[in-house]
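Input.
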Amino acid sequence: MAPSSTLEALPPESLEEICAMIDAAHRPSIYTIALVSKSYRRAARQFLFRSLYLDVKNTHQLCDNVNQLYDGLHASGSFGYVRDFWITGELSHSHPIDGIKGLGQAPQNDEKINETWDLVARLLERLTALENITYKGRAPFPPSLLAALHNSPSLESRLHLLDFCPHVFLSGLVSDTSEPARLDPYALQLLKSANLYEVGFCRHKITCTAGESMSRDEADYVIEAVLELAFRYSPSLKEIVCLWRAIPDARIPRELGIIHRSPWSGLLLDHANTPAERKGKLISLTVGWRSGIVDPNGRRGVGGMVHNGGRGGVDLYVFEAWNQRIDLSTLRTLKLVDRVPSEVMSRLVTNARRLVSLSSLQIHASRELDDFLHALRPLAELQIIGDFGRTIPPAIFDPHGPMLRRLSLLRLGKVFKPYIHEPASFVCSSKDIKEFRAHCPVLEELTILVSRSQGNSDEQAIYHELGSHPRLQKIHLTLECSVDVRGDATFEDAFEQ
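Output.
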């Protein structure tokens, strides 16, 4: 009989390589190929069960989901393939912190809730190759899951606490009284955990107009308090995500300015039993606005980010909080999603030389952008958002061009009327793409805006230049198709009718 010529006759290692490429290119297809045969199922197993997700709504549903996950992993022998474990949703559990328990939901039996989390903890202990556990919920991280992380020698997972209520840390800490605040024992245990790697939290938007001052009772010092407390107790903390929660229909000042607040007086702690504050060795810091939309970049579980051109996510006070409490020399990723005031940008330019490890930057365009980029060491990833002019900022190519692997130039246009789109400031031409090829020889991923002109010679030249870039692997194109008809009374009258 002639040897089989089908792909199934390949060695298991080759099938695994094929599944790895399919998973990287289009993850949904990995579920399809796993149904082809037993050989493909075995090869795809490590990709099928790489990530587990639990959507928490109530104890009954959570028990059912955990049992289904356990049965599926046990039947396929796949406990050792799980790398990421996600828990999202709202479910209360027994915890002594006032104002947290329940979060406004219907009361549930504490004993039943604890038994449910114990069931999740037993599943967690079987995931011996787990690398990340991500908890996205305002309720405190379940104590039984923290105990499972600490008591299982095989579990060295990174703990990511995202979108949680800051009062887990801050309950009773910010006060004008002279009585030292006492941290809840479980909050201290969570902060001191060697597994705690990332913290993400929301801060309410400051609602007064630019230039107004606020009393201490009105001021929001969440960032300063979280940074101080975390860096006292959390030596393993490496990433912080701070999102502002936008309030719909709130009055937003048109002009970006500094909000005047009284100075931050620090946390009221019993310093006799409190570790000395140190500078945090962060590797990633993200500051932006939170909305209900999905982040187009797929940011892991922190909620959507919106780019609000007139809303400053970073004021001078926030920058000083970073500058005093974060060791900038260890920072590798910095994401400033929204427009930064000139005062803060000037400080960033001054401190740019301290960012010796920075390799990835996301920033909103500003007048100081070129100076800031010139002051930085070469970056591997750069994303610029906003109106940065009609030409490519020269500082992208010098000094960053030779090292750039990912470049994104995004501009969010404004719609004045349904049929009139503001002409974009920067639309890439074939000449611009030639510049990318000449100055960015190792570029692998590019996100740009190009003009859609019905396939004429100019548009064809753009695609030809993109295809001739030797290292380019991924291209994200936004097609500019708008037509500027301002001043055309005939069109406007016809549209109104």
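Residues 20 and 26 are 10 Å apart (CA to CA).
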